[in-house]
Amino acid sequence: MLSERRLEVLRAIVQDYVGTEEPVGSKALTERHRLGVSPATVRNDMAALEEEGYIAQPHTSAGRIPTDKGYRLFVDKLAAVKPMTAPERRAIHNFLEGAVDLDDVVGRTVRLLAQLTRQVAVVQYPSLTRSTVRHVELLSLAPARVMLVLITDTGRVEQRMIDCHAPFGETSLADLRARLNSRVAGRRFADVPRLVEDLPEAFDVEDRGNVSTVLSALLETLVEENEERLMIGGTANLTRFGHDFPLTIRPVLEALEEQVVLLKLLGEAKDSGMTVRIGHENAHEGLNSTSVVSVGYGSGGEAVAKLGVVGPTRMDYPGTMGAVRAVARYVGQILAES
Amino acid sequence: MLSERRLEVLRAIVQDYVGTEEPVGSKALTERHRLGVSPATVRNDMAALEEEGYIAQPHTSAGRIPTDKGYRLFVDKLAAVKPMTAPERRAIHNFLEGAVDLDDVVGRTVRLLAQLTRQVAVVQYPSLTRSTVRHVELLSLAPARVMLVLITDTGRVEQRMIDCHAPFGETSLADLRARLNSRVAGRRFADVPRLVEDLPEAFDVEDRGNVSTVLSALLETLVEENEERLMIGGTANLTRFGHDFPLTIRPVLEALEEQVVLLKLLGEAKDSGMTVRIGHENAHEGLNSTSVVSVGYGSGGEAVAKLGVVGPTRMDYPGTMGAVRAVARYVGQILAES
DNA sequence: TGCTGGCACTCGCCTGCGGTGAGTGCCAAG
DNA sequence: CTTGGCACTCACCGCAGGCGAGTGCCAGCA
């Protein structure tokens, strides 16, 4: 177990390195922090910390930089989430409040988060699977062609074209629309399959095929998890990444383009509370030199989706975590209001 | 006026520089191209070309690189759009054909374009203003709350929440829905205002206020040009930009994040035919070291939106233009089919 | 046992220096 | 108008030396 002072030294190293982006040495440490001991002592502590794998030196006779393990310890034990100041909170609220629809909410959130953290922001659209149905609309576009429009309580709209085997009469369609809505409106997605199971039986034989087609399209839309969308922003902040650019930045940009990767990334995070994945803790190789801070957000008490930021492992964790948490809270509020 | 050979020299310079990314000298030119003259002659020609502002040297005693003006002459007079090969065309078609909805079409297009050109691709969603109405749906969510859903012939869906002053009866709403659709379905957006002008008169006095509210919401949705969305992809290709990275890439990333900037960028392009904006021809400062190749695409003969790529001024213009044109054509086809 | 000051050592970074070579401009001759 | 020749420029490369931040180790002291 590390002594109290050694933890203090580690904290100082992380803070200084995050600030200066340069390896930090024993002398500089004692000057900038009131550790109450001499550089020589600090050197001994550093040697111990290095032995344990919390810090490393890029080359002999240079200062130390924290390792992923060092950051991990810092985040778990040494850092407190930095709360936003009152003016910041007000600014967040004002900025989000002006949103006119869901796209706008997500767009504003991503811009806000990128600006606050000066990092790349990722915001997942409120997920379908946990929300409830507000309305299902069926439109006849051609005799044997129906458009299904699904409206959720989060304001999201999903549409889908359905080709029927046989012409679908306007009255039957209206009938189906009415029955469908009376059964599923206000219900959770997960409950829908059970609720519509016996619907075809209520129809004439000649319509049952079409009804089933429509219902299965509806169910597909509901479970289609890969339809989950997200928005990213603040990629320009990647330029502040480090000196040895092209090599570091390229895989990150590539990873960010793959929605699948990002969704998995956010999905891996714990459902409640904040998750911080540091460097190699990220499964995706391209993100091995980045840290991901993510958290769930939702309109009620429950999380319906996640958001987070991607930045260099060398990031201001307390500040970033504070910003992420605050933004998640306010987005939840905004969604609950609308 | 420049002599035939000098134009030939300029073409050779552009081609070599695009290939090697290094200033090209007189000797290398005569070796790689069959100009039929000696290096000394080429030197004279180069001096003349520099005098006219078509090429420049980064520093004394280095080779020449084309200026924006040089590239301009190259694309206007010296380069032919390189047609795609048959296998490439097949690949494009196959790749786009699997799309299941509009989002997917746009997503596939942007990925395809980025991959083909190895540059940043930008695809605008089919624009509302030029398309036609397929269906208007009105849903009563609460007594005095209506959701308007607008479906276009390009498969795009726009929704909007409307707060009414007074409760809007279900039957009146159904009436409005029916009348509205009979008037505007299949009509162009531009014609809608004229077509619905006298609609309120057909309703009872107590409903007129609500009808007007709904209609003005519809009209707003129609003209709301800033609702235009677009998708970008291939940002990882920015890493191939040049050596002096951070400075070049940052403003480009920033510009790409501003949808407004991009929409304006595409909007400036000619309606038909391909547009190439080179370096400082781009109004936005951040894109002064990039070229933008854009073209309209559409489901019928008419363009409904634009797409294009953003890359370094030092790009393979014939190849890029060929790819952009081919992709635009096939997207048009796909949209027409669906 | 743990902290401290001292000391020799390492090694990345900066600077200055000459050599090299690609590329240029100019000129006189064909 | 083209061409070969020639002197000149200047970015780039490699090398050596000095500087300095930072380290590890050790002996002395509380």
UniProtKB/TrEMBL annotation, chains A, B:
Keywords from the named record: Repressor, Stress response, Transcription, Transcription regulation
Coiled-coil annotated residue ranges, if any: none
Residue span, HTH deoR-type domain: 34-62
One of the GO BP terms on file: negative regulation of DNA-templated transcription
Residue ranges constituting the Heat-inducible transcription repressor HrcA C-terminal domain according to the UniProt record: 103-321
Gene3D superfamilies noted in UniProt: 3.30.450.40, Heat-inducible transcription repressor hrca homolog, domain 3, Winged helix-like DNA-binding domain superfamily/Winged helix DNA-binding domain
Classification via Pfam families: HrcA, HTH_DeoR
One Gene Ontology term of the molecular function aspect: DNA binding
UniProt-listed HAMAP family: HrcA
Role summary: Negative regulator of class I heat shock genes (grpE-dnaK-dnaJ and groELS operons). Prevents heat-shock induction of these operons.
Protein family (similarity comment): Belongs to the HrcA family.
Stated name of the protein: Heat-inducible transcription repressor HrcA
Species per Swiss-Prot/TrEMBL record: Streptomyces spongiae
Gene name linked to the record: hrcA
